[in-house]
Amino acid sequence: DNAITTRDLTKVYAGKRGRKVALDGVSLDIPRGSFFALLGPNGAGKSTFINILAGLVTKTSGQASIWGRDIDADGRAAKAAIGIVPQELNLDPFFTPRELLEVQAGMYGVPKAQRRTDEILEAVGLADKATAYARTLSGGMRRRLLVAKALVHTPPVLVLDEPTAGVDIELRQSLWAYVRKLNAQGVTVVLTTHYLEEAEELCDRIAIINHGKLVACDTKQALLARL
Length: 227
Ligand code: ADP
Ligand code: ADP
Prior knowledge:
Blueprint: E1 2-15, E2 18-31, E3 35-39, H1 46-54, E4 61-66, E5 69-70, H2 75-80, E6 82-85, H3 97-107, H4 117-123, H5 139-150, E7 157-161, H6 169-184, E8 188-193, H7 196-202, E9 205-210, E10 213-219, H8 220-226
Parallel strand pairs: 3-8, 3-9, 6-7, 7-8
Antiparallel strand pairs: 1-2, 1-4, 4-5, 9-10
Bound molecules: adenosine-5'-diphosphate (2 copies).
């Protein structure tokens, strides 16, 4: 069974400067439990792929499903199965981490008794910042808060869009350790990156995307043997 399946997924942006084919017939299977990298240079279409799954970008054609739920026919269930850590560190500056997680849990309909706000903040190393305004948090802390936010509804799939872009080496290591732990606990982890070494170090399967097209998709060992 797959955590994520796409068939002929296509996105054409109709911008002022004309049409831009950002995704061109991408058919991809991401197995449940895998640690999966979507690798490609800037502009390859990685964020577009993620944003379609997140419901933030409307696909032009093709199909996508998350945990067996079609994003069109069964959108709510599909969305409930995925947690997305966006690339941008945008947070309401006057919200505290605890408030942010409570609001997010409310949006996903997590009953009060089942919320694990403090446990999640502890897990990402933000317990002592639970009541600090987001505007006072460092970039690394914001990234970790966004990981926490993506996990409040306990999704089986966690997607991180360029999680280490602009992040210092120390935080990178601890962030990696944390997502590794999640994966070992059974969470399917998908990350986008333009660093081969990041995909190589962390992931068991790698898909390479360029100019909106899937170039290769295989286990890490098989793929590296061909490079
Ligand atoms: P990546 O995440 O791999 O850097 P993106 O998915 O962000 O790639 O972008 C893929 C292509 O689509 C790029 O050429 C980008 O300029 C273009 N693009 C992305 N978003 C838009 C948009 N809203 N309107 C027009 N073109 C866009
Ligand atoms: P700075 O602004 O100093 O870079 P960071 O938020 O990046 O602050 O990191 C602060 C500390 O928290 C670092 O020592 C880092 O190793 C640690 N840290 C980062 N991510 C995690 C995590 N997911 N779990 C636990 N500790 C973490």
